Amino acid sequence: MQEIMKAVLPLALAVTVSGCASVNAPPKEQDAQIAQQEITLGDGMLQSLRRECYSDFTKDFSAELKAGVSEIAFKKLNSDLATRKESISQWRLMDSLNRGDIYRTEVWKLVLTKDTKSGKSNIERLFYVTKADLDGKTVVIGFKFDAFF
Prior knowledge:
globular; single chain
């Protein structure tokens, strides 16, 4: 967990301190609606990664994150999967962690199917998506795969 915080906190702080956007806690009555919207954000990222569609993958990114994730890096991610003969076959939301109404992190469990000489095998990995409300819209401010890229 400390590894996640070390990776995500600097980005979240950079967004907060930059002055380019305002971070506001959503009203409590919107929690269910926001939770569903956020699940859609993480799910959409994984669908677009599987389809190899950079524009869909980054469409809900903050301006700062989008500037830091180039199309070349995205293609490399897909190329690395192809080289290892792995594909994302399924995923499900494990948990959504609220970070003091400033930002939220989804934890997704991915199943990668790997082609091997003896057949197919499955590998489980985690995918973290961090979101915040910036200027009245929920955007992705960070993401991370655990130890497979």
